[in-house]
């Protein structure tokens, strides 16, 4: 139910101040009403990701295994966590979603 606290005010503001086309974000203030909670969620997920990777590194090093196997296990677990926690969104967090064919928007 928490997303409703952000989505309802955003919908009302879009309806009142920017009701020409919902696919455009011309008024930046209205756009940030919905974008700020998304950025906070991405930041929290990134912090959780970093803490989990630190724990994984400590656990993998604690088991006296060969160095090559350690790197492989750590890489596999890290690559599994990246899409699960949305860490890839950190790269594109501040990229605009407006019109245009910029390289960053195209990559996203």
Q: Could you explain how this protein is built, in words?
A:
It comes from Oriolus oriolus (Eurasian golden oriole). It holds the Pfam family 7tm_2. The chain crosses the membrane at residues 29-53, 74-95. The chain is 71% helix and 0% strand. The chain contains 5 helices and no strands. Helix 1 (4-17) runs antiparallel to helix 2 (28-62) and helix 2 (28-62) runs antiparallel to helix 3 (67-85).
- Name the average pLDDT: 79
Beta content: under 5%
Output the number of helix runs. Answer: 5
* Uncertain runs: none
Keywords: Membrane, Transmembrane, Transmembrane helix
Protein name: GIPR protein
Subcellular location: Membrane
Membrane topology: Multi-pass membrane protein
Ordered list of secondary-structure elements with their pairings:
Layout: H1 4-17, H2 28-62, H3 67-85, H4 89-92, H5 103-107
Helix pairs in contact: 1-2, 2-3
Entry keywords:
single chain; 108 residues; mainly alpha; 5 helices; 71% helix
Q: Short description, anyone?
A:
Helix content is 71%, strand content 0%. It has 108 residues and is mainly alpha-helical.
